[in-house]
Specification:
Mean pLDDT: 88
Helix content: 10-25%
Structural class: alpha+beta
Order of helices and strands: HEEHHHHEEEE
Radius of gyration: 18 Å
Number of helices: 5
Number of strands: 6
Largest sheet: 6 strands, antiparallel
CATH architecture: Roll
CATH topology: Thiol Ester Dehydrase, Chain A
Low-confidence stretches: 1-24
Strand content: 25-35%
Amino acid sequence: MTPIVKAGPPRAMLALMSQPDPRAPTRTLSTSDFRVPPEDRYFEDYLPGAVYEYGYLTVTEAEILEFARRFDPQPIHVDPEFAAAGPFGGLIASGWHTASMMMRLFADHYLSRVASLASPGIDELRWPAPVRPGDQLRLRTTIMEARLSRSKPDRGLVRTQGELLDSGDRTVLSLLAMNLLGCREPGSR
């Protein structure tokens, strides 16, 4: 039997973690963006070769510790003293925390709110550099492919290269995402 977990302060903390700061909301950083907002975005709006950037999220030590204590309690993520003497020379965010922050920007700005159907998966997930307290992160998306489903003409598959970058332009996460999106006009492409 699965235990019932009551909402409490840790859950409240996680609900607030890595959300855009209302005083400085995340935004489009590119010179151009989709021609329609996420509330009206369909498969046809995802054009191969398009590159968009969104940001910023600032990572705090408290967020790193809270996430890691709950989900990835390795010493490099939960023990600042141990981490200082460890291979990274200080506390770093869990890769899964980094992936969660990337997903927040991806969901807020890139995914359709009306046509996103599911994701069959992610390929090539990498964490080439650590995320540290105080890092400011932004998301870069590149649409690699957009093709109609062979079996279901009311939807298409979009492959997106996603990169999360820190303020020094270092890639801290990269992946190839696959998303199924409904068509505005089935069979149109």
